[in-house]
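In this section we walk through a basic example: taking a raw amino acid sequence and producing a predicted 3D structure, encoded as discrete structure tokens. The instruction is simple. Fold the sequence below.
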Amino acid sequence: MCPYIITCEPQTWPDLVQLREEADITTESMSEHREDEERSAGYDLAVEEAPPKVKPPPLYRVVLINDDFTPMEFVVDILESIFGMERTRATQVMLEVHTKGKGNCGVFNFEIAETKVAQVMGIAKQHQHPLLCTIEDT
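The resulting token sequence is shown next.
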């Protein structure tokens, strides 16, 4: 900030010119003063890059689809082993699958959701059950 602040009425402009000449303040010396002030205040004139804006990955819902052949106990075991659910929660999801036709197993990023679906389908195929598991956008 410039230490020289002069306020005056419009009719005193000639006085302002005279004051400026007396104080020997020119535009050049004001800018030099400002630069000196910035240097002494520790300001750097280097340009800093803004940190990149990272948005969270899109999430996907893993859904079990009901069928008439897969035993309910097998579905509960899948929910416990692959999705880490407690027995009571796994039973609730299994009943949702049985009554509503599909049930939400969890919400994950795409890679994890894809892996969970592959695990469910692999175990179901091993045990010869037609259990279906899919991925849906949230």
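Looking at the output, two observations stand out. The mean pLDDT is 82. The longest helix spans residues 110-126. In the next section we compare this with other chains.
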